Structures
1.
Amino acid sequence: MLALLAVLKAFFTAIDQATPVSEVPIAISLDNDSQDYGDETFLEEFMAAQDNASAFPAGNVLANICTQLHQVIANLFASFKPAEEHLGPIIDIWIVGVSMAVRHGLRDWAAFLQYGGEWERLRSTNSQISRLWSPYILTRVLAADPTAFSNAPDQFISAWFESIVEPEVEQQSSSLTTMLLNIEDQNTILRNPLFRRNSEGVYDITAEALFEARPSLIVCTFSSLTISDIETFWRIWEGHLMTYLKQETVSAYP
C-alpha cells in the first residue's frame, strides 16, 4: 500500500508541475436561479470550467483517483474493525489530489466541505474512527491550502468544537486547534485568552495543554459569542454540546 501511495504522489507531483495553474479558479454556482439554463451567469461559469478542464487534461484521471481514494477511506470509516495503519498516508495523498484539483479550478473547497461534499459524508458516518480521523482530514486540507478556511468557516469551527468535546481525539484536536489559531485567531469564536503564541510568533498547542484547558475553552467559546453567532452556534453544535455534558456528568457521578 505504501509503495502504491508513493507512486500516486509522484504522479500527482509530475502532472501538477507540468501544467500551469489557472489564474482564477472557477466555482460553479448552484443556486436555483443559476440552474435555469437560460441564465447567462451559469453559462459563463460552465464554459469557464470547461476551459479549465481543457487546460488541465489530466484532470479526469486525477478526479477518478481521488474518487477511489475517497471510497477506500469511506469503507474504512464504516468498517467495524478497520485497518488504520495506512489510513493517515491514504488521507494525505487524497488531500494532495483534491488540493491540486482546487488549484486548477476543477473543484472548490466549499463544495468539498459542505453538506453533500466528500468530507461531510465521511464525517456523517459518525463512527468511532470517523470521529477520530475527521479532524485530521481538516488539518491536511488547511496544510495544503490555508485559504480553505475562508471558503467554509462554519464547517471548520463546527468540526473543531466537536473534536474538543470528544475525549478520545485529543491529539487530532490539538493539531486542528493549532492550525486554526495560526490561520485565524481573530475569528469571533476562536479568539480566546487561553493560548498564547510562542517565541516564534506561532501557536503550538499540545494534546495535554488542550485537555487541561478544555472545560475553560468551552466556557470561553460561549462567552465570545455575539448575538448573531448564537442561532448558528445552537443549530450546528446543539448535539455536540449535549454529548459533552453527558460525558462530564458520567465522569463526575459514575
2.
Amino acid sequence: MPRTAPVRLQFKDVSLHSAGLFPLTPALSRPAFSRSIPFRLGVTSYVYPSDILENVQRLAPVVDDIELVFFESADASNLPTPGEIEKWRVLARKHDVTFTVHFPIDKALGSPDPVERDACLTSILSLIELCGPLTPHGWILHLEGIEANATPTRVREWQQDLIPLLRIIAGVVDDPRHVCVENLGYPFEWCEPLLASLPFSICLDFGHLWQRNSDWKAHLQHWLPRTRIMHLYGFDTTSRHYSLERAPMTLVREALHDIGNYTGVLTLETFGYDDTASSMKRLKECLGKEGLRG
C-alpha cells in the first residue's frame, strides 16, 4: 500500500459520509487575521461531512482557496461531473476564491509497473481536462513510486520513468508553472534533476518535512522562490494529518516568520470540521495580533 494511503483514507472517510446522518455542523467564519497576511489562506474540500459542492458553498465565503482532493479507485471515486464543475466555478467567481487541485494518489506516477504509470497519467490528464474551467491556482502532484531507502539504481530508474510523463503533463496544462510537485517521504533532492528541466513549481509541505526530521529551513530557503502552495497541519510519526494544535507552536511560528512575504496559497491541510476549526484558531495564535508583522 502506498505511503500516503492513510491520508487517502482520511479524506475518503470524510467524503463518503452523508450530510443527512449528522447534525448541522457549525459554520466557520472568515478569520479576522486574513486581512493582515500576505498569503492566500486555504482549506481542503472535506471540512464538512458532505460532498464537495456543499463544502465549496460553505467554505467559499470563509477562505481564499479550497484544495479539491480527489480519489479514484476500484471501490470508490469522487470525480465530479462537468455540471458540478460549473457550479463550483460560479461559486468561486462570486466569492473571489481560487482552487488548488490535488491529483488522485491511488496510483503512483513513478511506479516500477508501466501499467500503473500509464493508468496514473491517464487519470491526471482526464482531471486536467475536467477541471480546466476552474482555472486552478495550482495542480498538486505527488511523484510517488519510490521509497526513502531506495538504491541509487532504483532512483535513476524512477527519474527516467518520470521524465517523459512529466513532459506530457507540462504540454497539456495551460501553464506548467501551475503544476506543483510536493515533497513527500523521500529525499527531495531526487526531484531536482526533474525540476531542472521543467518549469514546474513547488508544493512545500511542512508536515512531511517535520515528520522526516529534515532540515526544513534549508529546504524552505532553497525552494521558496519556486513555491506556489504550502501545506500546514499537525503531525506525528505517521502520515495522518492532525489539527495544527498537534504541532509545536514555536515551530509553526518560526515557519510563518521564515516564509516572509510569501503571497501564494497556504493550505491548512486537515480533513474534518474539528481539526480545521482548531487549526484556524492555532494559526491565529501563532501569527499574533498583527499577523506576520507581529
3.
Amino acid sequence: MSVPREISHQIHERDNYICVYCNLDGRLSYQNFKTLTIDHVRPKMFGDNHSLENLVTACYVCNQLKGHYFPKHLHNEKEIMHNIREHIARERAKDFERYVDVVSPFLHSIK
C-alpha cells in the first residue's frame, strides 16, 4: 500500500523537498523533483505504518539503496538516521564500483 498523495505532499513540504539521506534538493531541477519519494524509516515489514514520524523524503537512489535496512539495535532517532546515512553511503560506494566495472570497457573502446 503506497502512501496517500496528500501525506506525501505533507512530508515533502516538511522536509523542504530535500532528501534526508543525501541532501538532494528537489527544488533545484525538475529531474531532482521527480526523483523524490517517500521512505519508511522503519520499514513496513517491521510493523510501522504511514505515521508522519516514520516517513521522510528520500531520493529514488537513497530509497533503493536503503531498502529494508533498519538498525534495530539503536533507539535514539539521531543515531538511527546517522547509521542509515552511513549504510546508504557504503551501498552507494559499492554501487559506484559496479557502475565503473560496467562502463570501463565502453570508455576504453571509444579512445
